[in-house]
Amino acid sequence: MEQNTKTTKRNALLAAFGCAVGYLLGGKLLALLPVPALLPERLLSFLHHCAAAPIAEELVFRGAIQGLAKPLGRWQAVLLQAVLFAVQHGTPAGMAYALVCGLALGALRERTGKVWPGMLLHTLNNLLVFAAG
After folding, report:
1. What confidence tens digit (pLDDT) does each residue in 16-38 have?
2. Using CA atoms, how far apart are residues 53 and 45, in angstroms rounded to an integer?
3. How high is the pLDDT of residue 23?
4. Mapped to the 3 state alphabet, what secondary structure does the chain carry?
5. Rounded distance, CA 73 to CA 29, Å?
6. Angle at Cα 129 formed by Cα 128 and Cα 131, nearest 5°?
7. CB-count burial class (<10 Å; 0-12, 13-18, 19+) for 118
8. What's the pLDDT tens digit per position in 72-108?
9. Is the distance from CB of 83 to CB of 99 less than 8 angstroms?
10. Longest C-alpha distance within the chain, in Å?
């Protein structure tokens, strides 16, 4: 029985990390695509940061990764997805901010059982950051 539990937890970790790596690699591949000259750079940045990223990141991190990591424990899954979310945000300051946001969004996902409230909150956060910068 204990071996089965260890296998389940190992598989959960592998699936969660695989999902995070897939997301990161997918983003790198998308960045290689040519950008249509018809869209102004600021509009393209807005669409990316305030629409596409919050939806994709919530589905991947709070949806898939947090769900896949549940065999580790509810709050361990929240912590794992938050750490993976933070790592993909690059700079130390960005990682620290993303870790806090990831923990809050993961807790929201855990409490509501739904991903869409986090999508709304994530979008609002990104809109505020976009407007400030």
Report:
1. 888 888 888 888 777 777 766 66
2. 10
3. 85
4. CHHHHHHHHHHHHHHHHHHHHHHHHHHHHHHCCCCCCCCCHHHHHHHHHHHHHHHHHHHHHHHHHHHHCHHHCHHHHHHHHHHHHHHCCCCHHHHHHHHHHHHHHHHHHHHHCCCHHHHHHHHHHHHHHHHHC
5. 33
6. 65
7. buried
8. 999 999 999 999 999 998 899 999 999 999 999 999 9
9. yes
10. 59
pLDDT at residue 34, as a whole number? 77
| pLDDT given for residue 97 in this prediction | 96
**What token pair was written down for 58?**
């919530």
Checking 108-112 for CB contacts under 8 A at 24+ apart, the result is: 108/62, 109/62, 109/63, 109/66, 109/78, 110/66, 110/74, 110/75, 110/77, 110/78
Give CA 4 to chain center in angstroms: 29
Q: What pLDDT, on the 0 to 100 scale, is given for residue 36?
A: 66
